[in-house]
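Suppose a classmate hands you a notebook page containing two proteins, each written out with its sequence and a corresponding row of structure tokens. How would you begin to make sense of it? This section walks through that situation. The first entry is reproduced here exactly as it would appear on such a page.
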Amino acid sequence: MSNKKIFILLPDGVGLRNFAFTDFYNKCKQATEMDLIFWNNTPFDLSKMGYEEIKLQQKKSNFFLEVLKNARNEIELNCNIRKSKDAVYDSYRFPFSYKTLKSVVKRTVTCFVIQLFNSEKGLEKVRTLIRKTGRKTDFYKECSELLKLEKPAFVFCTNQRISLAIAPLLAAQDLKIPTATFIFSWDNLPKGTMVVETDYYFVWSSHMKQELLYYYPYIKVNQIVITGSPQFENHFNVDNIIPKEIFFKQNGLDVTKKYICYSGDDVTTSPYDSDYLLDLINALRILNKKGFQLGIIFRRCPVDFSDRFNLILASNKDIVSNIDPKWHKVGEGWNTILPTSEDSILQLNIVAHTQLVVNLGSSMVFDYAAQKKPCAYINYNPKRHNGNWSVEKIYNFIHFRSMPNDAVVWLNSPEDIAYKIENMLGDEINEVVAGAQEWFRKINQHPADQASQRIWDGIAEICKK
């Protein structure tokens, strides 16, 4: 190819963890002669890390593009229900906001668009409207002028669900620059979150490839590249594991204890997370009376800034140590809370220095599987839960249907926890670890430490065409 520039489009902070805070950049330099440039719409200054970047200045999406994006999402879920005859897709809908006049207007217009185009053919028209609207924006014109100047060989988008990525990708396509997007999470495709349309789609696994073909039949097999996700590569960088004595001292941990990680969820996924943490605390007190010396490392969900754990943490300092994720909050939305490179190392060490993880349906199961350690999933409703949420609803999500029966230990009641944790600390847990690793291999292409390399191989192959 005549130009070796590769643009990595960061429409928001989600892609930082996978592409800026892993070995992705270094592997590019090692594997290719390409020049990587981050097309950066995040507040994070990547130049401080020695990366070349071009800043995007667009912070808000076009109003009508947002309307069309939301309408597309709802119509896709409706089509999925009709196609599969499965009502689970209703559970992926988020309630609309009515807090401001603008939000009321947006909701009203969105409902009108849904009513007008609520079919497979209507969905095609909405997709066409998204492209036409994107091309009419000033942002599209700005991106087009920049691309004409820079002439990259390829534009790779790190997130398929952000409307701010529509204009840059359309501008590239109109200039005959090949484009691709990365499906950034294991549960994204059933949710109807595809916003951008690119020439190629990079996915985690063969399983995700089949999902992509099912939900988006206009995508062809030769447009899909299976790579795995770079987010797990840090677990294989053993040079970043801090010696136990140092890590424990840094975080005020007791070297005589064995620790269990309680990995928190966001408020929407698990509104009663504090109840579950308290149940785990009570179970460990039972085990410690039997002679165990156990403690809990509490790692909250990085986008959860609620105060719901404060009282429990303050009242149980003898058994729970709080280690906050090293993320940086720059706004109110979940996608304005940015990861840091330090947090990847922190997470690696929490996994390395704990025996197992307890949570409600989190992908942390794969982080622990990468280090050959078990996970326990909470599987009961707390006493004070209401009818709007249930644990059954969580585990009915599509992405859990890929799960082998023995991939986790199921905690089916508060009374289950103590004796099942005791069993998990023994050798018989090896079968569960093997099940988790089998699930990990299905969800994420292996070897898991070579995802960045596969992404670069895919980009290089496309650029040769």
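The notebook's second entry, a different protein, reads as follows.
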Amino acid sequence: MTLTSFGPANRIQRSAETHPLTWRLRDDGEAVWLDEYQAKNGYAAARKAFSDMAQDDIVQTVKDAGLKGRGGAGFPTGVKWGLMPKDESINIRYLLCNADEMEPNTWKDRMLMEQLPHLLIEGMLISARALKTYRGYIFLRGEYTTAAKHLNRAVEEAKAAGLLGKNILGSGFDFELFVHTGAGRYICGEETALINSLEGRRANPRSKPPFPAAVGVWGKPTCVNNVETLCNVPAIIADGVDWYKSLARDGSEDMGTKLMGFSGKVKNPGLWELPFGVTGRELFEDYAGGMRDGYTLKCWQPGGAGTGFLLPEHLDAQMYAGGIAKVGTRMGTGLAMAVDDSVNMVSLLRNMEEFFSRESCGFCTPCRDGLPWSVKLLRALENGEGQAGDIETLLGLVGFLGPGKTFCAHAPGAVEPLGSAIKYFRPEFEAGIAPTSAVVPPLAKPIVVGA
């Protein structure tokens, strides 16, 4: 699979005006180090932020640009920044980059960290200036060894150039940045579980409130942003709010561009920087090239394993949070997966739920017990040993593990694809019920998903 922003036949011409995240990428896929990055206008936005802008003006600019989190939740970044305390007497604050990219079928942050490490560092530097944070951590998925090596080298380059450390750019502002590799837990993608892990604790989510902006790392105000989110900041500061908003397609309520991709048995699996508002069909047909010869698209997920399945007829939906919500699921990470007609949905869901069950922190009962229960039922259906009522029990679990029913969003994300798969492909689940099975009382009144 290619980690590239090129389209089919390299027909896309990337430029700073249209591709703020990826225009600096090298054609050979090698990392862009400091000299080349600065030759391509790197750190110009940081110099502008340090010399020409007040800290509150940086926050307001990001808020006005409409930048939203790119990790999947889509919370407005400027609003999140505005939650940090204004009290100048609080001189210990932290900025955390959530680089624990463990969502199955998602690799966008990996590309940015491996090939454009200084873009992330510049984004964090500007953000630290705005938030008055004196120390930052990049919490990195442990398996991303190349990203760790490249980020550590880039940090050392930035230190040597006076772009990190003491008295940055003669401003009197100090900012230290560290790369911290995690131990490999999906739950660390949740910001408070990430904070616990960084502190050396078990990676359980924390109760909110208090939110990290008030009580975060070691009890101090903390802001947590995703890799791609932070990488958008330099372009917004350099080129302004109106330009950034103009990048999105008409009809999109989300601003700027997004790294989007397609995997599965498509002709051209890959990753591209595209404006918010392109349709799923454009992404699937024009960029991914459609299905390989001999395969037919059965369904697709728009943004990682924790998003619901959609049918081919939903490809005309616009790729932004509200556009995907109109067809019944979430935008998620924006990296889609094509499921071909050879795949049995029961087996696919059993595989997914095994992953989510294994990655549960085990803190709350619905998630700890409900996800293994779903795996047990799916395994029985997969083997043709299901009992009458099993599908209704699975739908009951979808309801009991849904939004607002568990301590964090892990379980709701885990069962969203399950509910949508039963909604669209129920006969495949019914085929797994043994002909002589006894009728088992369902868990609860059947829940109609998407009704």
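A careful reader of the second entry would note: Residues 260-340 form a domain with the Ubiquitin-like (UB roll) fold (CATH 3.10.20.600).
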